[in-house]
Amino acid sequence: METFYYVVDSIDGDYANLKRTDIESDELKLVARALLPEGIAVGTKLKYELFQYTIV
Questions:
Q1: 34 and 13 in contact (C-beta within 8 Å)?
Q2: Cα separation of 31 and 17, whole Å?
Q3: Where are the domains of the chain?
Q4: For the chain, is the Cβ count within 10 Å smaller at the N or the C terminus?
Q5: Residue 19 CB burial class (10 angstroms; 0-12, 13-18, ≥19)
Q6: Domain 3-55 fold
């Protein structure tokens, strides 16, 4: 499985916009906050691996 790194770009209600940090990309990924760890905020760095997000 691949590992991806993101930073929380913005939070809008029950969703968060994540931006990839391991590659050059301007695209944002919209993810339900229920799938993300508790306590995230704008600027939180995340790792996505094995279908799970963790704070790094």
A1: no
A2: 6
A3: 3-55
A4: N
A5: middle
A6: OB fold (Dihydrolipoamide Acetyltransferase, E2P) (2.40.50)
Give the Cα-Cα-Cα angle 49, 21, 10 (nearest 5 degrees).
Answer: 95
The type of residue at 1 is M
In single-letter form, the type of residue at position 19 comes to K
User: What is the Cα–Cα distance from 46 to 56, expressed in whole angstroms?
Assistant: 6
Question: Tens place of pLDDT for every residue, the chain, 56 residues?
Answer: 799 999 999 999 999 999 999 999 999 999 999 999 999 999 999 999 999 999 99
**Cβ contacts of 33 within 8 Å, gap of 6 or more:** 11, 14, 15, 16, 40
